[in-house]
């Protein structure tokens, strides 16, 4: 039994350094990925339940690594946030999305805004984000109304005063913000109403079981009512089937996003969907 201590400790150390090494190699690969064109943007449409029309889209980063294959954002975004690579990824996304949006407009396709995800860290040191937005809008000559940002509720509430100030600065530039993953981050109503945002996105975890879990249904009902009271649009994420859709409709939800209407699509497929003016 005496020998077990050091052996366990050794194993623990080994495991720790393996994990650290993995993170480091992911970080190094990610750094190269940005320069080597391994990242791309996919787009998931958002549909208005009143008109059935596509009224927006969310851009989601994709990483196709030559040695790892497709890597999920759930795996590399946290690494990107820790290492500071997130700024470069966000700037890549802003650039690609603004350029693509402008291109679709030139092709005469229906013009709708594109929403890019931003991390809390970028809001903390917002000067870089603000100047990147300004630069990209000017380079692409895209009207700022077609660019939106999504900030998670937990990031928004961590330092709400700062986040409110940044959202205000973006608003002055004509860039609207939504609060993402809403319902998971303990907002207080009094803070929420100070955010000059246009949209709340209800987190997928509440939508998933909405038809079977009365607690989830009650939460979504409350979020929709609150959004209405604050005159905000409300989007439900992760809508996967007709039952989800019907239930959300009865609760008065404005917009939906999810596999039921469409998975996130590469630019070409998204352009095709826009050209067909596909409806719900
Ligand atoms: P999110 O911002 O909440 O994005 C929605 C996620 O749900 C996406 O996963 C999307 O593919 C997925 N999804 C959409 N509809 C459905 C559905 O009906 N069912 C299910 N099961 N899933 C659905 P994805 O693309 O893997 O992204 C995961 C997360 O990674 C995002 O969550 C976001 O937090 C982060 N992320 C993705 N792209 C970016 C980015 O460009 N920048 C930053 N900072 N974060 C990003
Ligand atoms: Ca999002
Ligand atoms: Ca979300
Ligand atoms: Ca989420």
TrEMBL record:
Boundaries of the shown chain within the full protein: 556 to 835 of 850
Organism of provenance: Paramagnetospirillum kuznetsovii
Domain EAL intervals: 23-278
Protein name: GGDEF domain-containing protein
Superkingdom, taxonomy of origin: Bacteria
